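Input for the complex:
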Amino acid sequence: MTTAPTGTKQSTTLAVEPEPGRRKLSTAKAMQEAISQRMTRDESVFVMGEDVGPYGGIFSSTTGLIDRFGPERVIDTPISETAFIGLGIGAAVEGMRPVVELMFADFFGVCMDQIYNHMAKIHFESGGNVKVPMVLMTATGGGYSDGAQHSQCLWGTFAHLPGMKVVVPSNPYDAKGLMAAAIDSDDPVVFMFHKGIMGLGWMAKNNRAIGAVPEEEYIVPIGKARVAREGTDVTIVTLSLSVHHSLDVAEKLEAEGISVEVIDLRSLVPLDRDAIVRSVTKTGRLVVVDEDYQSFGLSGEVIAVVAEHDASLLTSVSRVCVPDVPIPYARELESIVLPTPARIEAAVREAVAR
Amino acid sequence: MTLSTTPELTEESRRSLLNTMVLIRTYEEAIRREYYADKMPAFDIGAGLVPGEMHLSAGQEPVAAGICAHLTADDALTATHRPHHVAIAKGVALRPMTAEIFGREDGFGHGRGGHMHLFDPSNHFSCSGIIAEGLPPALGQAFAFKRQGNNRVVVAVTGEGAANQGAFHESLNLAALWKLPVIFVVEDNDWGISVPRAGSTSVTSNAVRAAAYGMPGVRVEDNSVEAVYAAGGEAVARARAGGGPSLIEVHTLRLWGHFEGDAEGYRPELKSVPDHDPIPRYRDELLQAGGLSAEQFQTMQDRAVEQVEDAIQFAKASPAPNPSEHLNYVFSEGVNS
Amino acid sequence: MTDVRFPHMTTAEGATGVLVTWFVDSGDEVTPKTLIAEVAMDKVDAEVYPETSGTISLLVEEGAEVPQGSVIAQVN
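Predicted:
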């Protein structure tokens, strides 16, 4: 509850989306680099969570940070998510910029009150007088048989509740720029990284999880979607790992003369409604691909955006989501419920056939 | 109790404790009056100038006065759904606080918060309507103060019912583990809404729960402001000196209902409750000890009424929030979704 | 020409690891500051940087199992 920052924050005017260059990183390393660069320039930034220290984050979000900044700024916590997320809130209120990790998004059940009743509402309840500049980063997603309590995306749940920005990167370049923007934000940001985009050696290979990342600091503005691939026949609106699957499908169908445009939302809150409408205005066909549960979530919201703008734009609408069932353990079952390339391809083919 | 760290109470500081208690009571009585003014004869919780739930703190003044006497505006305090007494004792300005309770534009939150969500950054005062969930942010304020290298402390107020919440236990452990400058104050007013302490709590004193987390804990038994002052002095001094957190449980009194409109049919001792009012008791103690004259007490009351009525007039004169601004303050940059 | 070797990650004789990720392609210019690869042995990861600057040629495929100490790339 102070208007003056406590850290030694310098001028934070950063480049916005510079050329990617040639140096390649994994998404995990890009996130680490963003956090490290912000910690270097701003002493009020610190990292806190379960196993973020010597372990480096279960999904490598914080690897190496403790070697560089020490245990005073890269802090392992007890398994007390309510206490340490709340601690992040209080520290943010007093001028610090915490980056707090919730190990799996699935664990929000043990700490949601701090997240949605406190982190997300204090700015509003205080009439804008108290800011909570905090990043809550968390791992999401399935595809490796981790079962119903460790595989969910859940971003629609967070986005449904007002007061938090919800950021979901799909690649190393965006992950670095969006993390820098999240740390800079005076509002709470939930930064949801899919395990499948991190470039981890111990998960299924995903070539798009390795990509060119500038060494310099830059931001990717929160709330702007990216046209990941231009096309004219069908619009796929998607995010996170599903962007990669959608691009794979688009490349495959190009050979058959089907032109697919892929919109990577990059954030749910704010939602880039203009980008969605712009693309569907061009293609008239919309496929929403979302690894979150189908009903009452992002996919319906995206379709509503277009329908409220001009329902007559839509000659075809469908969605490829997790049907309303918990994520199953067995590989044969999990691969059916996830938005796999095969399901996406079938949806696109059906769309162009109409 | 040996309390070498707590300053001896002078006649003046005793009067100051009483004065704080009188101001709080005057405030709560006035809010109660305004709250009911246009809700009767048939009670309608959403009607009137002060709508919604109203949790008043009459009877719990000794906790607020005794603890906050050791704090400055730079120290922080997190309160509960029943926050007025500690807000006033902490030094929160009555005008914007009252305007917020009335849902007016000049309130702390421009009418977005209400009586359970009062935020005064200049006093590092906040509250939360969720039981025990005000404690974790208090840890963070203490963490920031410790990092900033000053000797500021945080008081985290909660109730005896909240001591059965997970957030309470997580917070005690983490505060003790990291030696954070926090004073946990448990207001035991005997009742978790309608459930008596014996029906909710496995131990007779939450001081033993403090011991379970490796921090000093005391229970103040008799709702005495001077006993609270003594315990608070020791705990605040320990926190300022880098000695980490403490817990103080005060057996206090909920003079009125859980919220206004609560008929309290569950409370067998209802008729005798006013007999335990801590304010007449302390007033009489000071009058008898010679540290207070009847005239001084009258002046105290008159000044309290003046301040409180001024705040209520201010609130009533403040404009309603502009309905066209109903989307404001979700985010600092004005974008909602 | 200098060799880039799979790092020694254990004292065990003949231990093998996995070339997890190449961050460069053959023909890329590299310097000692260029992260060229991530390797793993027994769930422990290590980053690989070349000792000299020049044009790199990769000698093993991603995912290949490699004895520690063996040459995985050359810099010309």
